[in-house]
Amino acid sequence: MITLTNLAIQFGKRVLYKDVNIKFTRGNIYGVIGANGAGKSTLLRAISGDLEPNHGSVELGPGERLSVLEQDHFKYDEYRVMDTVLMGHQPLWENMKERERLYSKAEMTEEDGNLAAELEEKFAEMNGWEAESDAAQLLQNLGVQEDLHQKMVGELSNTEKVRVMLAKALFGKPDNLLLDEPTNDLDLDTVEWLEDYLGEIDETQTVLIVSHDRHFLDAVSTQTIDIDYGKVTVFSGNYSFWYESSQLALRQAQNQKLKAEEKKKQLEEFIRRFSANVAKSKQTTSRKKMLEKLNVDEIKPSSRKYPGIIFQMEREPGNQILEVEGLKAVEPDGTVLFDDVNFNIEKGQKVVFLSHNPKAMTALFEIINGNRQADAGTYKWGVTITTAYLPLDNTEFFNSDKNLIDWLSQYGVGNEVMMKGYLGRMLFSGEEVLKKVNVLSGGEKMRCMIARMQLQNANCLILDTPTNHLDLESIQAFNNNLTLFKGNILFSSHDHEFIETVADRIIELTPKGTIDKLMSYDEYIHDEGIKEQKAKMYN
Fold first, then answer.
1. What is the pLDDT of residues 373-414, one digit of tens each?
2. CATH of the domain at 200
3. Is 257 inside any structural domain?
Protein backbone atom coordinates (compact mmCIF):
# COMPACT_ATOMS: atom_id res chain seq x y z
CA MET A 1 0.00 0.00 0.00
CA ILE A 2 1.26 3.47 -0.90
CA THR A 3 -0.25 6.67 0.48
CA LEU A 4 0.43 10.11 -1.04
CA THR A 5 -0.54 13.05 1.18
CA ASN A 6 -0.60 16.63 -0.18
CA LEU A 7 2.18 15.75 -2.61
CA ALA A 8 3.56 18.61 -4.71
CA ILE A 9 6.43 18.59 -7.22
CA GLN A 10 7.75 21.49 -9.24
CA PHE A 11 10.93 22.29 -11.18
CA GLY A 12 11.67 26.00 -10.99
CA LYS A 13 8.42 27.79 -11.85
CA ARG A 14 6.91 24.75 -13.53
CA VAL A 15 4.44 22.96 -11.26
CA LEU A 16 4.01 19.31 -12.31
CA TYR A 17 1.28 18.65 -9.73
CA LYS A 18 0.19 19.73 -6.27
CA ASP A 19 -2.21 18.61 -3.53
CA VAL A 20 -2.04 14.98 -4.65
CA ASN A 21 -3.89 12.80 -2.15
CA ILE A 22 -4.14 9.16 -3.26
CA LYS A 23 -4.04 5.78 -1.58
CA PHE A 24 -2.80 2.96 -3.83
CA THR A 25 -4.28 -0.22 -2.38
CA ARG A 26 -3.13 -3.85 -2.35
CA GLY A 27 -4.10 -6.26 -5.07
CA ASN A 28 -4.25 -3.54 -7.72
CA ILE A 29 -2.13 -2.69 -10.75
CA TYR A 30 -2.20 1.01 -11.64
CA GLY A 31 -1.34 2.03 -15.20
CA VAL A 32 0.13 5.57 -15.18
CA ILE A 33 -0.72 7.64 -18.28
CA GLY A 34 -0.15 11.25 -19.34
CA ALA A 35 1.40 13.29 -22.13
CA ASN A 36 5.20 13.43 -22.57
CA GLY A 37 6.60 15.64 -19.82
CA ALA A 38 3.46 15.40 -17.63
CA GLY A 39 5.49 13.81 -14.82
CA LYS A 40 4.78 10.05 -14.99
CA SER A 41 8.34 8.89 -14.28
CA THR A 42 8.74 11.76 -11.79
CA LEU A 43 5.80 10.41 -9.76
CA LEU A 44 7.48 7.00 -9.54
CA ARG A 45 10.79 8.61 -8.54
CA ALA A 46 9.04 10.56 -5.75
CA ILE A 47 7.39 7.37 -4.45
CA SER A 48 10.68 5.45 -4.56
CA GLY A 49 12.50 8.17 -2.61
CA ASP A 50 14.82 8.96 -5.51
CA LEU A 51 13.31 12.47 -5.70
CA GLU A 52 12.37 14.66 -2.75
CA PRO A 53 8.89 16.21 -3.24
CA ASN A 54 8.55 19.97 -2.71
CA HIS A 55 5.70 19.32 -0.33
CA GLY A 56 3.77 16.46 1.22
CA SER A 57 4.68 12.88 2.03
CA VAL A 58 4.86 9.33 0.68
CA GLU A 59 4.16 6.47 3.11
CA LEU A 60 4.24 2.71 2.70
CA GLY A 61 2.28 0.26 4.83
CA PRO A 62 4.06 -0.85 8.07
CA GLY A 63 7.01 -3.13 7.34
CA GLU A 64 6.34 -3.14 3.60
CA ARG A 65 9.07 -3.53 1.01
CA LEU A 66 9.35 -1.38 -2.13
CA SER A 67 11.04 -2.52 -5.33
CA VAL A 68 11.84 -0.42 -8.41
CA LEU A 69 12.79 -1.25 -12.00
CA GLU A 70 16.10 0.62 -12.17
CA GLN A 71 17.06 2.50 -15.34
CA ASP A 72 20.86 2.63 -14.76
CA HIS A 73 22.06 -0.40 -16.73
CA PHE A 74 25.71 0.02 -15.65
CA LYS A 75 25.16 0.18 -11.89
CA TYR A 76 25.66 -3.56 -11.32
CA ASP A 77 28.37 -4.23 -13.92
CA GLU A 78 30.77 -5.42 -11.17
CA TYR A 79 28.31 -7.96 -9.72
CA ARG A 80 27.30 -11.46 -10.78
CA VAL A 81 23.92 -11.75 -12.51
CA MET A 82 22.58 -14.04 -9.78
CA ASP A 83 23.73 -11.73 -6.97
CA THR A 84 22.17 -8.72 -8.72
CA VAL A 85 18.76 -10.41 -8.78
CA LEU A 86 19.07 -11.49 -5.13
CA MET A 87 19.81 -7.85 -4.20
CA GLY A 88 16.26 -7.10 -5.29
CA HIS A 89 15.18 -8.46 -1.88
CA GLN A 90 17.44 -6.23 0.21
CA PRO A 91 16.62 -7.70 3.68
CA LEU A 92 17.33 -11.20 2.36
CA TRP A 93 20.55 -10.11 0.65
CA GLU A 94 21.82 -8.41 3.83
CA ASN A 95 20.94 -11.54 5.81
CA MET A 96 22.90 -13.70 3.35
CA LYS A 97 25.95 -11.43 3.52
CA GLU A 98 25.87 -11.36 7.34
CA ARG A 99 25.54 -15.19 7.54
CA GLU A 100 28.43 -15.49 5.10
CA ARG A 101 30.56 -13.18 7.27
CA LEU A 102 29.79 -15.11 10.46
CA TYR A 103 30.40 -18.54 8.96
CA SER A 104 33.70 -17.48 7.45
CA LYS A 105 35.13 -16.79 10.93
CA ALA A 106 37.76 -19.22 12.18
CA GLU A 107 36.08 -19.26 15.61
CA MET A 108 32.62 -18.10 16.64
CA THR A 109 31.82 -16.55 20.01
CA GLU A 110 28.64 -17.35 21.92
CA GLU A 111 27.29 -13.97 20.76
CA ASP A 112 28.07 -14.94 17.14
CA GLY A 113 26.22 -18.23 17.66
CA ASN A 114 23.10 -16.48 18.98
CA LEU A 115 23.20 -14.02 16.06
CA ALA A 116 23.64 -16.90 13.59
CA ALA A 117 20.59 -18.69 15.03
CA GLU A 118 18.57 -15.48 14.73
CA LEU A 119 19.72 -14.96 11.13
CA GLU A 120 18.90 -18.56 10.22
CA GLU A 121 15.35 -18.16 11.53
CA LYS A 122 14.81 -14.97 9.52
CA PHE A 123 16.47 -16.55 6.48
CA ALA A 124 13.95 -19.40 6.54
CA GLU A 125 11.04 -16.95 7.00
CA MET A 126 12.14 -15.09 3.87
CA ASN A 127 12.29 -18.37 1.85
CA GLY A 128 16.07 -18.02 1.70
CA TRP A 129 16.65 -21.71 0.92
CA GLU A 130 14.64 -21.36 -2.33
CA ALA A 131 16.02 -17.92 -3.19
CA GLU A 132 18.62 -18.95 -5.78
CA SER A 133 16.35 -21.42 -7.55
CA ASP A 134 13.51 -18.80 -7.59
CA ALA A 135 15.91 -16.18 -8.99
CA ALA A 136 17.19 -18.63 -11.62
CA GLN A 137 13.62 -19.47 -12.69
CA LEU A 138 12.75 -15.77 -12.94
CA LEU A 139 15.82 -15.12 -15.13
CA GLN A 140 14.94 -18.10 -17.36
CA ASN A 141 11.36 -16.86 -17.78
CA LEU A 142 12.72 -13.47 -18.82
CA GLY A 143 14.99 -15.03 -21.45
CA VAL A 144 18.31 -14.90 -19.53
CA GLN A 145 19.74 -18.40 -20.02
CA GLU A 146 21.41 -20.42 -17.26
CA ASP A 147 24.95 -20.07 -18.71
CA LEU A 148 24.76 -16.31 -18.00
CA HIS A 149 23.65 -16.53 -14.33
CA GLN A 150 27.20 -16.64 -12.92
CA LYS A 151 28.65 -14.07 -15.32
CA MET A 152 29.26 -10.44 -14.44
CA VAL A 153 26.46 -8.08 -15.46
CA GLY A 154 29.05 -5.97 -17.32
CA GLU A 155 29.62 -8.92 -19.73
CA LEU A 156 25.98 -8.90 -20.89
CA SER A 157 24.38 -7.09 -23.82
CA ASN A 158 22.10 -4.14 -23.09
CA THR A 159 19.00 -6.22 -23.88
CA GLU A 160 20.14 -8.90 -21.39
CA LYS A 161 20.86 -6.23 -18.74
CA VAL A 162 17.29 -4.88 -19.11
CA ARG A 163 15.96 -8.36 -18.33
CA VAL A 164 18.25 -8.78 -15.31
CA MET A 165 17.02 -5.42 -13.95
CA LEU A 166 13.43 -6.57 -14.40
CA ALA A 167 14.15 -9.88 -12.62
CA LYS A 168 15.74 -7.92 -9.76
CA ALA A 169 12.61 -5.73 -9.45
CA LEU A 170 10.22 -8.72 -9.44
CA PHE A 171 12.28 -10.97 -7.18
CA GLY A 172 10.81 -11.92 -3.82
CA LYS A 173 7.31 -10.58 -4.59
CA PRO A 174 7.76 -7.09 -3.10
CA ASP A 175 4.76 -5.49 -1.37
CA ASN A 176 5.07 -2.44 -3.64
CA LEU A 177 6.45 -2.54 -7.17
CA LEU A 178 7.24 0.42 -9.46
CA LEU A 179 7.84 -0.38 -13.14
CA ASP A 180 8.85 2.38 -15.59
CA GLU A 181 8.52 1.15 -19.23
CA PRO A 182 9.03 -2.55 -18.32
CA THR A 183 8.38 -3.84 -21.87
CA ASN A 184 11.21 -1.83 -23.50
CA ASP A 185 13.65 -4.17 -25.31
CA LEU A 186 11.54 -7.26 -24.54
CA ASP A 187 10.44 -9.64 -27.29
CA LEU A 188 6.84 -10.67 -27.67
CA ASP A 189 7.11 -13.94 -25.75
CA THR A 190 8.70 -12.22 -22.75
CA VAL A 191 6.06 -9.45 -22.76
CA GLU A 192 3.35 -12.13 -22.76
CA TRP A 193 5.03 -13.92 -19.85
CA LEU A 194 5.17 -10.62 -17.92
CA GLU A 195 1.46 -9.99 -18.65
CA ASP A 196 0.61 -13.42 -17.24
CA TYR A 197 2.90 -12.92 -14.24
CA LEU A 198 1.38 -9.56 -13.33
CA GLY A 199 -2.13 -10.83 -14.06
CA GLU A 200 -1.76 -13.19 -11.12
CA ILE A 201 -0.11 -10.85 -8.60
CA ASP A 202 -0.51 -11.50 -4.93
CA GLU A 203 -3.44 -9.84 -3.15
CA THR A 204 -0.90 -8.21 -0.84
CA GLN A 205 0.99 -6.46 -3.68
CA THR A 206 0.56 -2.96 -5.10
CA VAL A 207 1.97 -2.25 -8.58
CA LEU A 208 2.41 1.05 -10.48
CA ILE A 209 3.36 0.89 -14.18
CA VAL A 210 4.36 3.65 -16.61
CA SER A 211 4.12 2.38 -20.18
CA HIS A 212 3.41 3.53 -23.75
CA ASP A 213 2.35 -0.02 -24.65
CA ARG A 214 -1.46 0.11 -24.77
CA HIS A 215 -1.89 -3.64 -25.21
CA PHE A 216 0.27 -4.31 -22.16
CA LEU A 217 -1.52 -1.70 -20.04
CA ASP A 218 -4.86 -3.17 -21.06
CA ALA A 219 -3.73 -6.69 -20.22
CA VAL A 220 -2.52 -5.92 -16.68
CA SER A 221 -4.06 -2.70 -15.29
CA THR A 222 -7.00 -2.79 -12.91
CA GLN A 223 -6.95 1.01 -12.48
CA THR A 224 -5.61 4.02 -14.40
CA ILE A 225 -3.73 7.02 -13.00
CA ASP A 226 -4.19 9.97 -15.33
CA ILE A 227 -1.73 12.87 -15.04
CA ASP A 228 -3.25 15.78 -16.96
CA TYR A 229 -2.62 19.51 -16.64
CA GLY A 230 -1.19 19.26 -13.14
CA LYS A 231 -3.91 16.95 -11.80
CA VAL A 232 -3.40 13.33 -10.80
CA THR A 233 -6.65 11.34 -10.93
CA VAL A 234 -7.36 7.65 -10.35
CA PHE A 235 -9.97 5.86 -12.49
CA SER A 236 -11.24 2.29 -12.29
CA GLY A 237 -10.48 0.22 -15.39
CA ASN A 238 -7.62 -0.10 -17.89
CA TYR A 239 -6.34 2.26 -20.61
CA SER A 240 -8.95 1.29 -23.24
CA PHE A 241 -11.76 1.84 -20.76
CA TRP A 242 -10.35 5.25 -19.82
CA TYR A 243 -9.84 6.28 -23.46
CA GLU A 244 -13.15 5.04 -24.87
CA SER A 245 -15.26 6.23 -21.93
CA SER A 246 -13.60 9.71 -21.82
CA GLN A 247 -14.18 10.09 -25.59
CA LEU A 248 -17.84 9.09 -25.18
CA ALA A 249 -18.22 11.57 -22.30
CA LEU A 250 -16.61 14.29 -24.46
CA ARG A 251 -19.08 13.64 -27.32
CA GLN A 252 -21.92 13.80 -24.78
CA ALA A 253 -20.65 17.09 -23.36
CA GLN A 254 -20.58 18.58 -26.88
CA ASN A 255 -24.17 17.43 -27.55
CA GLN A 256 -26.29 20.09 -25.85
CA LYS A 257 -29.57 18.38 -26.72
CA LEU A 258 -28.79 15.11 -24.92
CA LYS A 259 -30.76 14.74 -21.70
CA ALA A 260 -29.10 13.66 -18.42
CA GLU A 261 -30.97 10.34 -18.22
CA GLU A 262 -30.03 9.54 -21.85
CA LYS A 263 -26.36 10.28 -21.08
CA LYS A 264 -26.44 7.95 -18.08
CA LYS A 265 -28.13 5.25 -20.15
CA GLN A 266 -25.41 5.51 -22.85
CA LEU A 267 -22.62 5.28 -20.25
CA GLU A 268 -24.22 2.28 -18.54
CA GLU A 269 -24.58 0.54 -21.90
CA PHE A 270 -20.90 1.29 -22.65
CA ILE A 271 -19.81 -0.24 -19.30
CA ARG A 272 -21.97 -3.32 -19.97
CA ARG A 273 -20.43 -3.89 -23.44
CA PHE A 274 -16.91 -3.21 -22.23
CA SER A 275 -17.30 -5.59 -19.28
CA ALA A 276 -18.63 -8.36 -21.53
CA ASN A 277 -15.55 -8.12 -23.80
CA VAL A 278 -13.03 -7.88 -20.98
CA ALA A 279 -14.51 -10.83 -19.08
CA LYS A 280 -13.28 -13.08 -21.91
CA SER A 281 -9.63 -12.05 -21.52
CA LYS A 282 -7.01 -14.33 -20.07
CA GLN A 283 -6.09 -12.56 -16.81
CA THR A 284 -9.42 -13.37 -15.28
CA THR A 285 -8.54 -12.68 -11.63
CA SER A 286 -7.39 -9.09 -12.09
CA ARG A 287 -9.96 -8.46 -14.83
CA LYS A 288 -12.91 -9.46 -12.67
CA LYS A 289 -11.55 -7.26 -9.92
CA MET A 290 -11.43 -4.35 -12.35
CA LEU A 291 -14.95 -4.93 -13.62
CA GLU A 292 -16.42 -4.78 -10.14
CA LYS A 293 -15.25 -1.17 -9.76
CA LEU A 294 -16.38 0.36 -13.07
CA ASN A 295 -18.63 3.25 -12.25
CA VAL A 296 -20.71 5.64 -14.40
CA ASP A 297 -20.08 8.55 -12.01
CA GLU A 298 -16.31 8.30 -12.54
CA ILE A 299 -16.53 8.77 -16.31
CA LYS A 300 -15.49 12.31 -17.25
CA PRO A 301 -14.64 14.01 -20.53
CA SER A 302 -10.86 14.13 -21.03
CA SER A 303 -9.15 17.49 -21.50
CA ARG A 304 -6.27 15.69 -23.19
CA LYS A 305 -5.26 17.10 -26.59
CA TYR A 306 -4.81 14.67 -29.48
CA PRO A 307 -2.89 15.62 -32.64
CA GLY A 308 -4.99 15.93 -35.79
CA ILE A 309 -3.33 13.31 -38.00
CA ILE A 310 -5.13 13.05 -41.37
CA PHE A 311 -3.49 11.34 -44.36
CA GLN A 312 -5.15 12.06 -47.68
CA MET A 313 -4.38 10.70 -51.14
CA GLU A 314 -3.92 13.14 -54.02
CA ARG A 315 -4.27 10.33 -56.54
CA GLU A 316 -6.10 7.04 -56.58
CA PRO A 317 -3.59 4.17 -56.92
CA GLY A 318 -3.81 1.68 -59.80
CA ASN A 319 -3.66 -2.09 -59.39
CA GLN A 320 0.14 -2.30 -59.56
CA ILE A 321 1.54 -1.25 -56.16
CA LEU A 322 4.93 -2.87 -55.44
CA GLU A 323 6.57 -6.02 -56.76
CA VAL A 324 9.66 -7.45 -55.04
CA GLU A 325 11.72 -10.35 -56.47
CA GLY A 326 14.67 -12.20 -54.90
CA LEU A 327 15.63 -9.33 -52.59
CA LYS A 328 18.61 -9.79 -50.29
CA ALA A 329 20.27 -7.54 -47.68
CA VAL A 330 23.58 -8.23 -45.93
CA GLU A 331 25.23 -6.17 -43.17
CA PRO A 332 28.89 -5.04 -43.55
CA ASP A 333 29.91 -7.71 -40.97
CA GLY A 334 28.39 -10.44 -43.18
CA THR A 335 25.12 -10.90 -41.23
CA VAL A 336 22.33 -11.86 -43.65
CA LEU A 337 19.29 -9.75 -42.71
CA PHE A 338 17.04 -11.39 -45.29
CA ASP A 339 17.33 -13.39 -48.49
CA ASP A 340 15.05 -14.63 -51.28
CA VAL A 341 12.33 -12.12 -50.45
CA ASN A 342 9.44 -12.19 -52.94
CA PHE A 343 6.09 -10.48 -52.59
CA ASN A 344 3.50 -8.50 -54.51
CA ILE A 345 1.52 -5.83 -52.66
CA GLU A 346 -2.18 -5.69 -53.58
CA LYS A 347 -4.24 -2.50 -53.73
CA GLY A 348 -5.40 -1.25 -50.29
CA GLN A 349 -3.28 -3.73 -48.29
CA LYS A 350 -1.75 -2.71 -44.97
CA VAL A 351 1.30 -4.87 -44.42
CA VAL A 352 3.39 -5.21 -41.28
CA PHE A 353 6.94 -6.50 -41.72
CA LEU A 354 8.44 -8.55 -38.89
CA SER A 355 11.85 -10.09 -38.18
CA HIS A 356 13.93 -11.34 -35.27
CA ASN A 357 16.44 -8.68 -36.36
CA PRO A 358 14.85 -5.17 -36.44
CA LYS A 359 17.61 -4.05 -38.86
CA ALA A 360 15.93 -6.22 -41.51
CA MET A 361 12.84 -3.98 -41.77
CA THR A 362 14.94 -0.81 -41.88
CA ALA A 363 17.09 -2.33 -44.66
CA LEU A 364 13.99 -3.27 -46.69
CA PHE A 365 12.43 0.19 -46.33
CA GLU A 366 15.72 1.92 -47.20
CA ILE A 367 16.06 -0.28 -50.32
CA ILE A 368 12.51 0.33 -51.65
CA ASN A 369 12.95 4.07 -50.98
CA GLY A 370 16.14 4.12 -53.07
CA ASN A 371 18.46 4.94 -50.12
CA ARG A 372 20.28 1.59 -50.02
CA GLN A 373 21.50 -0.85 -52.63
CA ALA A 374 20.10 -4.38 -52.41
CA ASP A 375 22.68 -7.19 -52.33
CA ALA A 376 20.51 -9.14 -54.77
CA GLY A 377 17.09 -8.92 -56.36
CA THR A 378 14.83 -6.18 -57.70
CA TYR A 379 11.82 -4.09 -56.75
CA LYS A 380 9.34 -2.20 -58.93
CA TRP A 381 6.75 0.41 -57.93
CA GLY A 382 3.53 0.87 -59.92
CA VAL A 383 3.45 4.02 -62.11
CA THR A 384 0.55 5.53 -60.13
CA ILE A 385 2.19 5.10 -56.72
CA THR A 386 3.42 8.04 -54.64
CA THR A 387 5.16 7.30 -51.35
CA ALA A 388 5.70 9.08 -48.03
CA TYR A 389 8.43 7.60 -45.85
CA LEU A 390 8.89 7.87 -42.09
CA PRO A 391 12.45 6.58 -41.48
CA LEU A 392 13.67 5.10 -38.21
CA ASP A 393 16.53 7.62 -38.00
CA ASN A 394 15.39 11.18 -38.75
CA THR A 395 18.59 12.93 -37.56
CA GLU A 396 19.60 14.32 -40.97
CA PHE A 397 16.25 16.11 -41.34
CA PHE A 398 16.92 18.26 -38.29
CA ASN A 399 20.54 19.34 -38.89
CA SER A 400 19.28 22.86 -39.49
CA ASP A 401 18.64 26.11 -37.62
CA LYS A 402 15.39 26.74 -39.53
CA ASN A 403 12.24 27.42 -37.50
CA LEU A 404 9.33 24.95 -37.74
CA ILE A 405 7.42 26.98 -40.36
CA ASP A 406 10.42 27.33 -42.69
CA TRP A 407 11.40 23.70 -42.13
CA LEU A 408 7.96 22.36 -43.03
CA SER A 409 7.63 24.70 -46.03
CA GLN A 410 10.46 22.74 -47.72
CA TYR A 411 8.23 19.70 -48.09
CA GLY A 412 5.03 20.97 -49.61
CA VAL A 413 3.27 23.77 -51.43
CA GLY A 414 1.46 26.37 -49.34
CA ASN A 415 1.79 29.69 -47.54
CA GLU A 416 2.78 30.40 -43.94
CA VAL A 417 -0.83 30.24 -42.71
CA MET A 418 -1.23 26.77 -44.19
CA MET A 419 2.01 25.56 -42.59
CA LYS A 420 0.92 26.96 -39.23
CA GLY A 421 -2.32 25.01 -39.68
CA TYR A 422 -0.45 21.72 -40.20
CA LEU A 423 1.81 22.44 -37.22
CA GLY A 424 -1.20 23.45 -35.10
CA ARG A 425 -2.85 20.12 -35.85
CA MET A 426 0.35 18.48 -34.54
CA LEU A 427 -0.02 20.49 -31.28
CA PHE A 428 2.59 23.19 -32.02
CA SER A 429 0.84 26.40 -31.03
CA GLY A 430 1.66 30.09 -30.66
CA GLU A 431 5.35 30.90 -30.41
CA GLU A 432 6.32 27.20 -30.61
CA VAL A 433 6.20 27.35 -34.43
CA LEU A 434 9.21 29.70 -34.30
CA LYS A 435 11.38 27.18 -32.41
CA LYS A 436 14.55 26.02 -34.15
CA VAL A 437 14.19 22.44 -35.33
CA ASN A 438 17.63 21.45 -34.01
CA VAL A 439 16.46 21.87 -30.39
CA LEU A 440 13.33 19.70 -30.62
CA SER A 441 12.76 16.65 -28.41
CA GLY A 442 12.40 13.15 -29.91
CA GLY A 443 8.59 13.33 -29.68
CA GLU A 444 8.46 16.81 -31.27
CA LYS A 445 10.66 15.65 -34.17
CA MET A 446 8.33 12.71 -34.78
CA ARG A 447 5.31 15.04 -34.89
CA CYS A 448 7.16 17.25 -37.40
CA MET A 449 7.95 14.20 -39.56
CA ILE A 450 4.28 13.18 -39.49
CA ALA A 451 3.26 16.75 -40.53
CA ARG A 452 5.79 16.46 -43.39
CA MET A 453 4.23 13.17 -44.50
CA GLN A 454 0.72 14.68 -44.49
CA LEU A 455 1.88 17.42 -46.90
CA GLN A 456 2.91 14.79 -49.45
CA ASN A 457 -0.65 13.42 -49.96
CA ALA A 458 0.87 10.05 -50.88
CA ASN A 459 -1.14 6.90 -51.64
CA CYS A 460 1.42 4.57 -50.03
CA LEU A 461 2.82 5.22 -46.53
CA ILE A 462 6.07 3.55 -45.42
CA LEU A 463 6.54 3.69 -41.65
CA ASP A 464 9.61 2.37 -39.82
CA THR A 465 8.66 1.93 -36.14
CA PRO A 466 6.31 4.95 -36.17
CA THR A 467 5.39 4.97 -32.47
CA ASN A 468 8.99 5.62 -31.29
CA HIS A 469 9.22 8.72 -29.02
CA LEU A 470 5.46 9.39 -29.27
CA ASP A 471 3.20 9.74 -26.24
CA LEU A 472 0.00 7.71 -25.89
CA GLU A 473 -2.16 10.52 -27.31
CA SER A 474 -0.10 10.76 -30.50
CA ILE A 475 0.06 6.95 -30.84
CA GLN A 476 -3.72 6.72 -30.43
CA ALA A 477 -4.40 9.48 -33.00
CA PHE A 478 -1.88 7.98 -35.48
CA ASN A 479 -3.38 4.52 -35.00
CA ASN A 480 -6.97 5.75 -35.47
CA ASN A 481 -6.16 7.51 -38.74
CA LEU A 482 -4.20 4.63 -40.26
CA THR A 483 -7.15 2.29 -39.77
CA LEU A 484 -9.23 4.70 -41.92
CA PHE A 485 -6.58 5.38 -44.61
CA LYS A 486 -7.70 4.03 -48.04
CA GLY A 487 -4.24 3.67 -49.59
CA ASN A 488 -1.43 1.18 -48.87
CA ILE A 489 0.62 1.07 -45.68
CA LEU A 490 3.94 -0.79 -45.32
CA PHE A 491 5.21 -0.63 -41.76
CA SER A 492 7.16 -2.15 -38.89
CA SER A 493 6.29 -1.76 -35.23
CA HIS A 494 6.78 -3.25 -31.77
CA ASP A 495 3.40 -1.89 -30.63
CA HIS A 496 1.06 -4.91 -30.36
CA GLU A 497 -2.16 -2.87 -30.51
CA PHE A 498 -0.91 -0.83 -33.47
CA ILE A 499 -0.13 -3.97 -35.50
CA GLU A 500 -3.33 -5.78 -34.52
CA THR A 501 -5.61 -2.87 -35.50
CA VAL A 502 -3.82 -1.65 -38.67
CA ALA A 503 -2.29 -4.68 -40.45
CA ASP A 504 -4.28 -7.09 -42.63
CA ARG A 505 -1.19 -8.91 -43.97
CA ILE A 506 2.00 -10.07 -42.26
CA ILE A 507 5.34 -10.64 -43.98
CA GLU A 508 8.20 -11.94 -41.85
CA LEU A 509 11.70 -11.41 -43.25
CA THR A 510 14.22 -14.17 -42.46
CA PRO A 511 17.67 -15.21 -43.78
CA LYS A 512 15.89 -18.07 -45.59
CA GLY A 513 12.99 -16.27 -47.26
CA THR A 514 9.64 -14.97 -46.03
CA ILE A 515 6.58 -16.12 -44.15
CA ASP A 516 3.64 -14.34 -45.79
CA LYS A 517 0.15 -14.57 -44.24
CA LEU A 518 -3.24 -12.89 -44.64
CA MET A 519 -4.33 -13.05 -41.02
CA SER A 520 -4.52 -10.99 -37.83
CA TYR A 521 -1.42 -10.43 -35.72
CA ASP A 522 -2.88 -12.24 -32.71
CA GLU A 523 -3.62 -15.31 -34.87
CA TYR A 524 -0.14 -15.17 -36.39
CA ILE A 525 1.82 -15.06 -33.12
CA HIS A 526 -0.12 -17.90 -31.53
CA ASP A 527 -0.23 -20.24 -34.55
CA GLU A 528 1.78 -23.41 -33.72
CA GLY A 529 2.47 -24.21 -37.40
CA ILE A 530 3.97 -20.76 -37.96
CA LYS A 531 6.10 -21.12 -34.81
CA GLU A 532 7.59 -24.36 -36.26
CA GLN A 533 8.15 -22.72 -39.65
CA LYS A 534 9.94 -19.76 -37.99
CA ALA A 535 12.23 -22.04 -35.99
CA LYS A 536 13.45 -23.65 -39.27
CA MET A 537 13.88 -20.38 -41.15
CA TYR A 538 15.98 -18.66 -38.50
CA ASN A 539 18.28 -21.64 -37.80
1. 999 999 999 999 999 999 999 999 999 999 999 999 999 888
2. 3.40.50.300
3. no
